[in-house]
Amino acid sequence: MENIKHWYSLAVRTMTEYVSTTPGLFPLPDWAKDDLSDLKGHQKGDLIGGDEGEEITAAYEEAREEVIAAQEDAGLDRVVEGQLRWDDMLAHPLAVHDAVDTQGIVRYYDNNNFYRDPVVQGELDFSGDVASELESASELTEGDALQAVLPGPYSLADLATDEHYGDEADFLAAIADFLAGEVEAFPAHETLFLLEPSLIENAPEDGVDERASEAIDTVASATDADVVVQPYWGALEEKVYAHLLDADIDAVGFDFVANQEENVYNLQEYGATDAVSLGLADGQNTLVEDPEAIRDRVDWVYDQIPVTEFETVYLTTNTETFYLPYGKFEEKLAVLAEAADLAEVKAA
Amino acid sequence: MTTKEQFRPEDHPNDSFLLTTVVGSYPKPKWLNRAKELYQDPDHEFDAEDWQEAKDDAARLITDEHERAGLDVVVDGEMRRTEMVEFFAHRIEGYEFNGPVKVWGHNYFDKPSVVSEVEYDENWLVDEYEFTAAASDRPVKVPITGPYTLANWSFNEAYEDDEELAYDLADLVNEEIEKLVDAGARYIQIDEPALATTPDDHAIVGECLERIVADIPEEVRIGLHVCYGDYSRIYPEILEFPVDEFDLELANGDYEQLDVFKDPEFTKDLALGVCDAHVAEVESVEQIEENIKKGLEVVPPEQLVVSPDCGVKLLPREVAYGKMANMVEAARNVEEDIDAGNIDVERGAPAPADD
């Protein structure tokens, strides 16, 4: 019996699946930047409202086709829709909601980027905006594994202003229910990435950390797909990480570009989900990594932690990639795909 | 004596002198944008020489417009500059461009990448300064994007961290200022909007400024412009910076942050934003007078300079002009009131501490 277990564990070890992917939110191809700024304009009121007309829709469709083809050409294992319409970045699902008024332009985390403050003024019922984007994407992906992308509930609540629910806990729960409802309407998808930078940038206090984990659990329970929760711009505080492991999710992401030490500490002290997502390529710098260097960083992470195998390792940029010029973004896609291939070869 | 008095016009009507100026950028005349399109059109015969002439005309026009508005210190409205990082990155060895990136909505800029050690190449602003100085009898201010912002708003492929890059860039800014001073410039403004994003880095900005002012003669006035941030996170630390003046954006927030600067005492000159650069409505002279008086709650008249909150390039040109003209009128009125003893210029003592 012991032997069987031993052999089994060896077999598992050689079966780690390396999955190259991205957290979505791509830059628009340059022609689309030009065309859409001509079609939409440059002011606050010109940003996407969810009711765009034919010409704008057509431009986005063409751009979507292009970024899906770019992911397929690069050989990524997961293909995202690209979130090219998300003018307000992670705040998008609220910014296009009928019960939300988009107000002043506010800074997007510590970046030189801005979004419209989504002020929630009514019940957050079903929208279907993201589901319809994914429907369009799934028609284009030709059997490649589709990956859905959403803001995690904690980050979305953090980016928004509540004028309806009145209570922080109720608001977070309402956002979670809203996102879960959106996910239920998604077409078939292999993976769901929930982006949670606020878990690091505006870490939840005692008590809130547990509720953040429950909110994530609510969203994750709405899909049968593998759910990856990707925090970034550093490392989670250890209590936040410990609570996050209680949620019914398949993988936690680690931003090894921004912080190695504390991410390794969390892995060493608290262990990990069976799958992990490693943010190893810099989503905010034009310096294009060597695929071998990314592969070596995977080995480095393995060397630091007691666990010797994961079922799945997602290889990704640490952040969204809309910060990059389009050409550099494409190069990053190719690097991730190649790095996953290299890691797979070495593991086998 | 502070560095401000040297800019007092000979025919200044009042004893008090509230220097009036602008932050820098100004709306470009529409024909300049059309000229640029022609220049960029390979099928059109509008060539580099024509383009140069168009920029010269625009610089002369806007400098003249500043004079007409009555400003004590003028700028050419940055007619030759594209964007505040791009313009300099094109002139510094070590930068390359890979295409536009998003700032918000469909507003993009060509965020450059630093791919090797930065080096001083062609001069940045000496030609611009010499042209403007020749076009005007008034003193000319030279705005320069600061090294911290140049570092922070670029992709850094070559340096260990942005701090090292910022220090190297600061040395280049120092070199440029030396050349500007040789050419006759006496009023330099360093623009550091990136400090608002990362206020914890004020010590890095301080060290950059030490490098910038190294061996620059004392009579040269150095200002620092910081906008759109939580000033309480950088004050009073910034008082240690080796500059003569802080140019701050306060009208936009309706002077909510004014109290930040009352305690401890503001020991530098205050270039107070008295017009909102993001509201396309000209404030009345009376309104601007009230705004100027806010500044007198922080510093005495000798330390006060008045300017708009920020560059006004996004406003319609007639609105920008209206704001300048009203601002100058308001400043002269307040000076008269001070001279007549109608305004209490004793700075309010800071509220006593609880202990």
TrEMBL record, chain B:
<feature type="binding site">
    <location>
        <position position="310"/>
    </location>
    <ligand>
        <name>Zn(2+)</name>
    </ligand>
</feature>
<protein>
    <recommendedName>
        <fullName>Methionine synthase</fullName>
        <ecNumber>2.1.1.-</ecNumber>
    </recommendedName>
</protein>
<comment type="similarity">
    <text>Belongs to the archaeal MetE family.</text>
</comment>
<comment type="function">
    <text>Catalyzes the transfer of a methyl group to L-homocysteine resulting in methionine formation. The physiological methyl donor is unknown.</text>
</comment>
<keyword id="KW-0489">Methyltransferase</keyword>
<keyword id="KW-0028">Amino-acid biosynthesis</keyword>
<dbReference type="InterPro" id="IPR022921">
    <property type="entry name" value="MetE_arc"/>
</dbReference>
<dbReference type="InterPro" id="IPR002629">
    <property type="entry name" value="Met_Synth_C/arc"/>
</dbReference>
<dbReference type="GO" id="GO:0032259">
    <property type="term" value="P:methylation"/>
</dbReference>
<feature type="domain" description="Cobalamin-independent methionine synthase MetE C-terminal/archaeal">
    <location>
        <begin position="19"/>
        <end position="332"/>
    </location>
</feature>
<keyword id="KW-0862">Zinc</keyword>
<keyword id="KW-0479">Metal-binding</keyword>
<keyword id="KW-0808">Transferase</keyword>
<feature type="binding site">
    <location>
        <position position="249"/>
    </location>
    <ligand>
        <name>Zn(2+)</name>
    </ligand>
</feature>
<dbReference type="GO" id="GO:0003871">
    <property type="term" value="F:5-methyltetrahydropteroyltriglutamate-homocysteine S-methyltransferase activity"/>
</dbReference>
<dbReference type="InterPro" id="IPR038071">
    <property type="entry name" value="UROD/MetE-like_sf"/>
</dbReference>
<feature type="binding site">
    <location>
        <position position="225"/>
    </location>
    <ligand>
        <name>Zn(2+)</name>
    </ligand>
</feature>
<dbReference type="GO" id="GO:0009086">
    <property type="term" value="P:methionine biosynthetic process"/>
</dbReference>
<feature type="binding site">
    <location>
        <position position="227"/>
    </location>
    <ligand>
        <name>Zn(2+)</name>
    </ligand>
</feature>
<dbReference type="Pfam" id="PF01717">
    <property type="entry name" value="Meth_synt_2"/>
</dbReference>
<dbReference type="GO" id="GO:0008270">
    <property type="term" value="F:zinc ion binding"/>
</dbReference>
<comment type="pathway">
    <text>Amino-acid biosynthesis; L-methionine biosynthesis via de novo pathway.</text>
</comment>
<keyword id="KW-0486">Methionine biosynthesis</keyword>
